[in-house]
Amino acid sequence: MRILTTILIVVFVCAGALAAEGEAGGQEQSIFSGSFADAAWTVLAFLLVLAVLGKTAWKPLLNSLKTREEHIRQQIETAENARKKAEKMLDDSKHQGLMIVQQAVEQAQKQGQMLAEKTRQEIFAVKSRAQEDIEHARAAAMQQLWEQTGNIMLSLGSKVLERTITPDDNQRFVQDAIAKLKQQ
Asked: Which domain holds residue 81?
């Protein structure tokens, strides 16, 4: 189809050249002032060059362009797939990061609760020991107070009676004091 179109164009150009040659007669020469044979040889040379270039240059050039186009299309598809894969990996990484942070927060809360409970237990133990120590100290102080009171009483009793109280006397005084306390 192309060759037929090209031949028709060449024929019309040649016909125009012949018509111009007939009109020009003896006038000055122009690019169209040639013979029909020159025009025919020019057209034939053009067609020959067109056929040779079509076989040797045009088809390989088109094949190279098609190959290049396919290669570029494949690179674009590969790049698109790589981009999608990278986006998926990024989303997965973000999700993993959030999960790690969430787990760390939960673990920190658990450790905080455990430390708070341990601290409460230690405080309770220290408080219990302190109360026991206070109770022992109070009991010891009471014992010491009773002993001192007893010594003071013996000393007073000795001075009031002006004699030394023997352990038997002391026992009798204690018994009398207990009996009076029971009556009250």
From this structure: 2-12+34-115
